[in-house]
Amino acid sequence: MTPLCEFRSVGFAYPQGAHGRPPFEIRDLSLALSPGEVLGLIGPNAAGKTTVIRLLSRVLEPSRGEIRIAGEAASQLSRAAVARQVAVVPQDVPQGFPYTVEQLVLMGRFPHAPGRFFESREDLEIAREAMAVTGVAALAAEPMDRLSGGERQRVVLARALAQRPRLLVLDEPTAHLDLRYQAECVALLRRLHRDEGLGILLVSHDLNLAAEVSDRVLLMAGGSVVDAGAPEDVIREPALEAVYGCRVVVDKHPETRRPTVNVAWPQGEATMGG
Amino acid sequence: MTASARLAWICGGLLVALTAVALGSLLVGAAPVAPRAVLDLVTGRGPLAGTDRTVILAIRLPRIIAALLAGAALAVAGAGFQALTRNPLAEPSILGVSAGAAFGVVLGQVSGLGQGIVDALGLTALGFAGALVAGVTVYLIASTAGGLPVHTLLLAGVIVGIFFSSAITVLISIVDTNRLGGVIHWLLGSVAPIPPASLGVFAMATAAGLWMVLGQARALNLLSLGDEGALELGVDAQRVKRRVFAGAALLTGTVVAFVGPIGFVGLIVPQALRMLLGPDTRVLVPAALLAGGAFLLAADTLARTVVAPAELSVGVLTSFCGAPFFIWLLRSRAGRTAP
Known about the structure:
Number of strands of chain B: 0
Number of domains of chain B: 1
Helix content of chain B: over 70%
Oligomer: heterodimer
Radius of gyration of chain B: 20 Å
Strand content of chain A: 15-25%
Strand order of the largest sheet of chain A: 6-7-8-3-9-10
Largest sheet of chain B: none
Radius of gyration of chain A: 19 Å
Helix content of chain A: 25-40%
Strand content of chain B: under 5%
Number of helices of chain B: 14
CATH class of chain B: Mainly Alpha
Largest sheet of chain A: 6 strands, mixed
Distance between the termini of chain A: 46 Å
Number of strands of chain A: 12
Order of helices and strands of chain B: HHHHHHHHHHHHHH
């Protein structure tokens, strides 16, 4: 089966590093995501997770290697063609002009007919369906700047669904959500995955979330993949401690038997950055 | 109601308002002409010669068309710059683009370009070039890795504006003094009757600029998500920005070439429309076209009637309305972003 997306020995370096440090680099990164698979991408800050998203959505172009989307070289596809396959749910949308929820969700229809001036009736139906799925239909006429962080997150998810992608890329999907919405978000992701066969790339700091919903997880550090495999094979104490540089306790969730991670909180002897 | 039906209603309403302003403007002026005679002349039934004919067809009508074109072009340029910079305070005169265009045009004027059609083309090209240079400079000064911060952008606009204004002063102080009267009147921004052929150039350049902005209207909406957000949705952000920037600079350069640097129309009109109609660029740009034309025509009609037979310069009038509006906008924006 052709993977939904594939990185073949991808290399990339930012032109310059922050505050005099050497520029951040991705070296020889290979990964593949099959249709309908949920891949969790985990790793500490500055591991390169966001860079992977940017490379996949063609915000950045790799300097070495190749990225293939649904079997075709991404560099040969138009931006709109990429956006029809891959939808990115960013952590937040910038606060700009006060577009309404419906207007924002309709923006997800752009890649399907970039030359069209107004969206079609069908576009509107797809957008309304997406808003219903993420529970923001009642907010359709609200301007974005009046919503709470959790509501905005669900609107952005609705916009990504309106793209009708085959691969959904989620960047910290539960960052702004309280426990109830986190649970609903997981339920929603599972439903989308089951009913629509959507492939999901989940990029998260939340190891418990990644362990819970992913078929496979990829542990990144310093721009390379350190480990990959089933959650219970990757999310283990020695590997995490080596990558994160702190003591952790990995346990099993009492209900789902998936791994759970807890920090072994230091008792005052450690220092920041030490 | 569908989006296109809504746009049709809005444009219909604005067109009615614009026609009313245009009719009113035809009827008033320093020389008294009976309303009946005005109607006859405009509908082609009037006398073939005479003072009334000259006043209406050679003075008032070309001036009305020039005011409509200038207002429309400025408002569309303002809407374009605002969407481009994701900043409701952006506008040709505040961004220094008008001053750049003015420098180009003054350069043409002091080197002898006048009223003919070739001169009109030359002045438009020089205005466009000046607007491009100023705009690119402001952009280079203000852009950082994270985008275009509001205060840096405004500051860069002010600096570039002052620079080009000084350059204009230098230019006019080294040329023949008896040419200065016209240049200074033009620099204040004033609509004067323009010969038909030049008016054609004005209309065509405005149409081209409008097309460049309006064609990217949907993509401009997506640009409000930030460059990265727009790229992720399939928008070629750099191409969209270049086109809209070129279009807005062409509109600004053209207006400056024909009627001078009139300030604040590009700020007030799109801003007021955004409050009334929402931020959708696809609605905002056509609405700005019509409302901008009507607004500047109303202002110009006032400018030529309140102190008749003398005239105010319309740029002075729009700045009188625009400055308080800008202050209010800046204050309300500061209030909104403060914790």
